[in-house]
Amino acid sequence: MSQHAFPRTRPRRLRRAEFIRGMVRETALDASQLIQPIFIAEGEQKGQVSSMPGVVRLDIPELIAECQELAALGVGCVALFPVLPQSLKTEDGAEALNPDGLVVRAIKAVKAAVPAIGVMVDIALDPYTTHGHDGLLDASGYVTNDLTLEVLRKQALMYARAGADIVSPSDMMDGRVGQIREVLERDSQHNTIILSYAAKYASSFYGPFRDAVGSAGNLGRGDKKTYQMDPANTDEALREVELDLAEGADIVMVKPGMPYLDIIRRVKDRFGVPVAAYQVSGEYAMLRAAIANGWLDEKKALMEALLCFRRAGADIVLTYYAKQAARWLAEAR
Ligand code: PBG
């Protein structure tokens, strides 16, 4: 080939104008694929989350109004996280099994008022325990696995009976998906979806969430490394996903999101099942901080981040930006 030969292939041809960029675009984002996490609270626990500007803890009437808006924008689902007063927290997290507790009342209220939107609830004890851990402690302070399962099972069944569409174990105890599936089947809750936090890492990016639910102070200098995964590991994520699927999970989640796109891709390639990604509180806080300083363009940065979850292999994205993203998607039509 002579020095002056023309390039035979010019990838830029397909980038020249929006019509052709649109035609060759491989992935897209739709509001129906988004899950909006919402903190729910009553009385003094209501209000703005300081480390998550723009995120507000809602009571049940406000939650219903929010769900109506989200449903109108086409957002698929909400994920509810309770914020309790310290007075309701105990060593054993007994409030988690209160049949008139905040989450049960919220599930019933949303399903009655906005039946079209999916309702997902977290299965874990951290909003309810004085020590801020997701499970029960033994005498040495270790989070015990099998005793915790007994509580998680009951919590999941109670939420399913209240009408939750999706139960979402976020505790990382071994065997919890199988036990929850078993108890749901025995109770004829055949269509309750289990979305498991399958590859959930012991991440520093959950800090603002722990502020939001008030578990940060309780956890103190402790961490969750004896049950959540080591950020250094990737094969272990596949093992966790394999176990959860074998135990009856319908959808598996990778969490956090942006620093873990490689895990999303490996899970999607290996198992070909519905995968969810969680853009967690710390990712939200980072983006908000940069946006507030004028260092990033809010809409462009957010829509890129969310699209990249889809490109990496996520079918579903949990993001505190779900409502705003749905608005932007509607405007773009
Ligand atoms: C608790 C739970 C956590 C998150 C979701 N469920 C925090 C944790 O494991 O400490 C984190 C969500 C976020 O950071 O946005 N089981």
TrEMBL record:
Which residues of the sequence carry a binding annotation for Mg(2+)? 240
Membrane-crossing residue ranges in chain numbering: none
Looking up CDD domains in the UniProt record yields: ALAD_PBGS_aspartate_rich
Q: What keywords are annotated for this sequence in UniProt? A: Heme biosynthesis, Lyase, Magnesium, Metal-binding, Porphyrin biosynthesis
Name of the protein this chain belongs to: Delta-aminolevulinic acid dehydratase
Partners and quaternary state? Homooctamer.
What does the similarity note say?
Belongs to the ALAD family.
List, alphabetically, the PANTHER family matched. DELTA-AMINOLEVULINIC ACID DEHYDRATASE
Give the pathway annotation.
Answer: Porphyrin-containing compound metabolism; protoporphyrin-IX biosynthesis; coproporphyrinogen-III from 5-aminolevulinate: step 1/4
